[in-house]
Every structure is written in structure tokens, then in C-alpha cells.
Design goal:
Layout lengths: L17 E3 L4 E5 L2 E6 L3 E3 L7 E5 L7 E11 L2 E10 L2 E10 L10 E4 L6 E4 L2 E2 L11 E6 L3 E5 L2 E6 L2 E6 L5 E4 L9 E4 L4 E2 L3 E2 L2 E6 L4 E8 L14 E3 L5 E4 L2 E2 L9
Antiparallel strand pairs: 1-4, 2-3, 2-10, 4-5, 5-9, 6-7, 7-8, 8-9, 10-11, 12-15, 13-14, 13-23, 15-16, 16-22, 17-20, 18-19, 20-21, 21-22, 23-24
């Protein structure tokens, strides 16, 4: 339910665009390596982010079985396959590109993300979907003061923050916990993941005298290295709270959830 699952818009990369992935990629099922490649390709099936295409020759373990079903996808036609790795069977897990798709995709397979247990770029895990090379995440320390209010209650009042700038999303303001009134927030079981920031460690909701507001704040105790400055800090949805930055009330942005 968080910005962690938002699909980032892009005005740069056209649908069907193909380019090389300059990183080693591996995928696993049941602890076994399905593929290990330094020759993967990005393909944009939609503008939000690319998919990985893996040379069939770089499959380490596993067998692809033709499902006998072809489908026209954004870059071109592809044939659906089931993946078997030892005793594990993942039906409809893969698409092998056919004649009519961009020539560079011939001989490659595009796996459904959820069909694999884990994905790695070099030795770092990748969450949710491939990271777009055209999306930036910058976490910058800032002397801007931030006050968060909701239904007339002050939930946080911080003299400084870390501003997280993420392509296609509103700026998020991460606050030290000592400046957040956690006594007014109710812990939530919600967990979300983001390919750019990692997996959340905490979510909080707020019950006021006039209403219940679920999942309005979150924290990453162990974010990705790209966002390590937000570790342990708390951010609130600009969309759901009254956010004052340097004494100025910011307009609430439109919801940007995936």
C-alpha cells in the first residue's frame, strides 16, 4: 500500500526498447541457481521499468517446457514455458521471444518475477522488479525543519531531516525517531518492498478522535546501500498528513500507488 510499490513513470524510454545490462545477474529457486549471466538485456514492456531477458545458453539449472501458447507482448511475440528445477515446477514461468520480437531478444527468456525465489545483481538482492537505470534515488541530509500534523494532532516536529528524492515520486521527508511522537502511533503489520530502498521494517497507523488513518508512516531499519541515510528514520505519506516544511504547509500530492 506504499510508495514502495509505485511504478515510476518515464518519459525517456520507449516501449520495446532493448539495451544491455552491465551487471552480473543470477536467479535462484530452492537454493539452486537457475541462471548466471553477464549478457542479460533490459527490455521495456511498459514505461515504468524494464524486465530482464536472459540468454537461454546461460541457464545453469532447470528445464524449460513449451506450454504451446504464444502471446503478443509489447516488444513482440513470445512463447510461454514452464520451468522445472529439480522437484520444483513453476508453470507459465517464462517467455521465450519469437520471430517478430526485436532481433536482440532472440535466444533470450524473460522470467516472471514471482516465479523465482530470489534475484541478484552482482551480489546484491533485487526486490519487487528490476531497477530502472533511469530512476534515481538520492537521500540528502537537510537542515529543513519538518512538522507533521493530522486531525489537529502534532505527530512529529523535527529541526532537520533527510530528504529522499526518487524519480516520479513526491519528495519524502525522513525524520529521526526522537522527533516523532510514537506514543500517538499504532504499530501495523504492513510490510512493503521497494527495488530501490529495500523492505520496510515498521509501519504505523494513527487513531484520532475523528477517524482512523491506516499505514501513514513507515521506516527502513536496513535499507539498500543507495538509501542508507534513511536507516531507522520515519517518513509520513505527504498524501495523508499535513506536512509543514520550513514553516510552510505543503499541498498534498495526488496518490501515487501501484
Amino acid at each position: 500500500m506504499a510508495d514502495e510499490s509505485v511504478q515510476h513513470p518515464s518519459l525517456i524510454v520507449p516501449i520495446g526498447h532493448v539495451e544491455p545490462v552491465p551487471r552480473r545477474l543470477r536467479g535462484t529457486i530452492g537454493g539452486r541457481v537457475v541462471f548466471d549471466t553477464r549478457r542479460a538485456l533490459y527490455v521495456w514492456e511498459w514505461r515504468a521499468y524494464p524486465q530482464f531477458c536472459i540468454p537461454v545458453e546461460d541457464m545453469v539449472d532447470g528445464v524449460l517446457t513449451d506450454d504451446g501458447h504464444s502471446e503478443k507482448r509489447s516488444p513482440g511475440p513470445a512463447r510461454r514455458h514452464t520451468l522445472r528445477v529439480g522437484a520444483e515446477v513453476r508453470e507459465g514461468a517464462a517467455w521465450v521471444w519469437e520471430e517478430g520480437a526485436p532481433e536482440r531478444l532472440h535466444g533470450t527468456v524473460r522470467f516472471e518475477w514471482e516465479a523465482l525465489d530470489s534475484w541478484f545483481e552482482e551480489d546484491e538482492p533485487v526486490y519487487v522488479h528490476p531497477r530502472s537505470p533511469y530512476t534515481r534515488v538520492d537521500a540528502l541530509r537537510s537542515s529543513s525543519s519538518v512538522r507533521v500534523e493530522l486531525d489537529g494532532t502534532v505527530l512529529a516536529d523535527a529541526p532537520h531531516c533527510v530528504k529522499l528524492f526518487e524519480t516520479g515520486l513526491p519528495t519524502r521527508y525522513y525524520l529521526d525517531r526522537m522527533h516523532v511522537d510514537l506514543t500517538r502511533l499504532r504499530p501495523s503489520d504492513t510490510v512493503t518492498s521497494c527495488p530501490y530502498k529495500g523492505t520496510t521494517s515498521h509501519y504505523w497507523s494513527f487513531d484520532s478522535d475523528t477517524g482512523t488513518h491506516e499505514g501513514i508512516a513507515w521506516a527502513y531499519d536496513f535499507p539498500t546501500v543507495h538509501a542508507n541515510r534513511i536507516a531507522g528514520m520515519v517518513a509520513f505519506y505527504n498524501e495523508h498528513v499535513d506536512l509543514h516544511v520550513d514553516g510552510r504547509l505543503l499541498p498534498r500530492p495526488s496518490l501515487r500507488r501501484g
